[in-house]
Amino acid sequence: MNKWTDLFLLHPLSGGWLDGLLFVSFGLHLLFALLIVGTAVLGLVFFLQDWLNNDQPGQSWNSKFMHTHLGLKSLAVVLGIAPLLLIQIRYSYSFFTTTGLFAYAWLAVIPLLIVAFLLIDGFNHSMESRAWLALLCGVIGVGALLTVPAVFTGALALMERQHLWAQFGQSGGQDFATLPALAPHWLLRYLHVIGAALVLGAAFQLFFSTRNNPEKAPRLRNWVFGATLAQILIGIPLLFTVAAELNWTIVAALTVGALAALLVLWVLRPRQSASETAPRPMPLPAPRSLLWLLPLAFAAMLVGRQFIQDESLNPVQAANDAYRTERAKTMDPFRQPSLDAYALKLKTVYDNGDTIYDQACAPCHGLKGKGDGPVAARLLIPAEDIAAIRADREYVYTLVRDGVPGSGMPYFRLYDREKIEMVLDTMGKRFDMYGKADVPPDREPEGEAMFVWAETCSVCHGVAGEITAFGHTLLPPPPDLQKFAMTHARALEVITNGYPGTVMPPFRHLPQEVLEDLTIISNTFRVEK
User: Fold this and answer.
1) What is the pTM of this model?
2) Helix or strand run (H / E) with residue 484
3) How many Å apart are CA 476 and CA 357, to the nearest integer?
4) Nearest Cα to Cα of residue 272 among 262, 283, 261, 263
5) Are 231 and 239 in contact (CB under 8 A)?
6) pLDDT digits (tens, 9 = 90+) for 337-346
7) Do residues 29 and 298 make contact, with C-beta atoms less than 8 angstroms apart?
8) Which of 154, 225, 265, 415 is the most buried (most CB within 10 A)?
């Protein structure tokens, strides 16, 4: 195996290092992504509450609350690049397959984020002055932002379920919501992500935004408590959807995360007894224990999630790495000959018609122009037998320069006119390409052939051999017979057997005399010019 045979086998680091870097970079990205989602959702909820309560001073705090969104989203976007690149290297097969299957939604992430960020910024700047505009921007912006984790969780859920790829692909993605092995897991996983966003967003703001506004702390404490409780309740059925991948390592990691979440609930439990009627004079401060309990729960759950993902993706990746390794070994004997042939081509100086023809034209048309070059057999539309062409030089120049749309004949605009003229000189010298068509002088086409030409052939070729309007719609279009002809034998062969891959049909059902006459007619237009 070597670097020239399969680039997907080139890993810059070992699998362990890649896994470690992916875990750390994805963890950091996910942390800030959850913070921006949680901040945006909570900001919209608090805005609505204060607007309905006509609490204008509260909107000032909400504006400061939302101001943190700008820095958080910048970090989330920047830190998202690393895991996206690493996962393409570590799990190339699963990643590229899934993003291809999920492309309709995957590409939607870009406009969704643009709309979300712009509208949320508009929401922040207008909440104190134009409430209705703020409401419109906030609802649409937060809705667009909430759609992004739905796309990502859907893609990751599909990536981990290789057995569903074929069914998902055949349905064009329409069966996503009805796949019993995918939809419940995706929905619960999405809700779990939103719950985590609310927990972390509320906790972050509890420490960050209540320093000068301690009266806001109870509101945020309640959100941390409620969202953590929701996380536990959602996590129980979510665990059942991944039961097949569980092992003791995963169970241990998830247990640590669950215990940390329960401790969060204990720390934030309501302290006021039932007999107390008066509220506390001062709100409770943010518990410092959250500074280690929440990161512990987040890291433990992320470790468990990573191991579950590895259980699904590692066997798939290993099998495909093994396949590519074997394929690389099979192709290795051809590496050096291919490189030598390529090096030889690099040394070739394309400064004369013979060299250009032999290197650029002969692979398809053959050295003798018979259409039998070494790569001709791979063409759906056979290469033309240019040794049998009798055409105007300027017409051939146009074909060489611009190619023939719909066929395997490419354009050669990379060559200037001088070099193309050199090739035309070579083809004229080798194949008499610009000579006269060999129309038999002692034979005049009879009425039946003239009728067939007028009723059938002229639909594409025109009564006088010109390309008709319909002919110009065909790919490849028919040749302009006023400028293009063939030897009698070649034209007869094409008329009799048709031209494979084109709309030129065979006419072998016609009598031989009619075929001969049609051949003469097709070659007459250029002769008469």
Assistant:
1) 0.65
2) strand 484-486
3) 23
4) 283
5) no
6) 888 888 888 8
7) no
8) 154
